[in-house]
Amino acid sequence: xxxxxxxxxAEALAELIRLDQPCVVLTGAGxxxxxxxxxxxxxxxxxxxxxxxxxxxxxxFQRDPERIxxxxxxRLDVLADAEPNPAHVALAEFESRGFxxxxxxxxxxxxxxxxxxxxxxxxxxxxxxxVCVACGRREEQVRELLPLxxxxxxxxxxxxxxxxxGELLPVEAIDRATALxxxxxxxxxxxxxLEVWPVAGLPEETLARGGKLAIVNRDPTPYDARAELVIHxxxxxxxxxxxxxxx
Length: 247
Fold this sequence. Notes:
Layout: H1 4-19, E1 23-27, H2 29-32, H3 52-55, H4 58-63, H5 65-80, H6 86-96, E2 102-105, H7 111-115, E3 120-122, E4 125-131, E5 138-139, E6 159-162, H8 171-183, E7 186-190, H9 202-208, E8 212-216, E9 229-231, H10 235-246
Parallel strand pairs: 1-2, 1-7, 2-3, 7-8, 8-9
Antiparallel strand pairs: 4-5, 4-6
């Protein structure tokens, strides 16, 4: 049953999105978890069986690429059955109606694009692809190359197409994300506690230029006190109600 406070919060968020344009969205793991995809902080799932720094760092890949691909094959298996949830669907619809300029995501699962979002900046890369660190060749779909993907050009073992611990974010992606945050009248943060840098600093870019911040996240964030609106609730439920208010 929808509580009155839920309805009021969704209506307030819809009003911000309607009036404060352009609106840019920043999403994190809290959106993906509602599709059944655990993040590395989750108590359950495959991450509970591995030390992230042993299977998701560039040093670990260089030391034992076969073990890394064994782990990423399991991650790809988890994603195989994952589908966009109401948060993904609502954000895609916001963009379709002209309420969202672009979407910046820390997620690597591709579900925003699967839901219909068109302008998606994947600052942490995509788990569906791979890259050759030796010659730079990129593969958009790596699943058919498992269990040990090799570069078709030089024969080196490909690296998962995600940003690993110890690597810098792609310059083009983070530069565009920063520019979008700076120009946004409203930065809508969904499903992230804003703890992973440098993406966690994007709200500061918006606020410094006089823009507003709205946050939808189950847990508190360091920016809650500076946000125009904070909703500690399910991303899917909040955004679905917000979409109805924008109709």
